[in-house]
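Two proteins, back to back. First:
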Amino acid sequence: MEDLKKELKKRCLKTTGKKEELVSHLLVGIENNMPVGNAVNVTKHNSLLNGLDPTAYWDILHHNPTPIPEPTNIDCNLLSPTEMDGSNSTNPKYGFSETFD
């Protein structure tokens, strides 16, 4: 059973459950040519991060002070999703200057 779980872990497959289920998961992984990793380097991800890198962080973006000019539509019936109410007022659109590594 220990070797079975090791092979599942190498393929990042579920390692809990009944032996028959685990064997089935491994066979499906082998049939689908799932890549095999080094079981030593496999780390469990924090479920709260949903796959994000643990060093990831949120950064608040600040828009430029001047709105971007409205584009001219050839067809006046085309409206952006935020202006579907048909009113003549348009929401200002702003650009952002932030860059990311």
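And the second protein:
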Amino acid sequence: MAYVHKVLVALDQLVNVICGGHDDETISAHWERMKYEGKWLGRLGCWCLNKLEANHGHLAVEGDLRRTRIVEQTEIQELKRELGVGSGAPVASSSTGPDPARK
């Protein structure tokens, strides 16, 4: 199931980019962002998605951020390995905001 979910997210991101959204952003997260920008398409899209799943847009943004953090941590670990840096040395992160997984 994880593989199928990854493929569906990739297709979602592809369609979003074709429609003018950011790369690595799902349509649902794009609509949530548009909703907060006051755009009617974002409000309409989120309203429709909320019929399928309550708070879908917000959950989509969280999912996008979670996937971004996973990729970022993977890249940091690979860079440390390539540079021969030990795990004790902190490496700056470009993520913004608190990590919802850390409470």
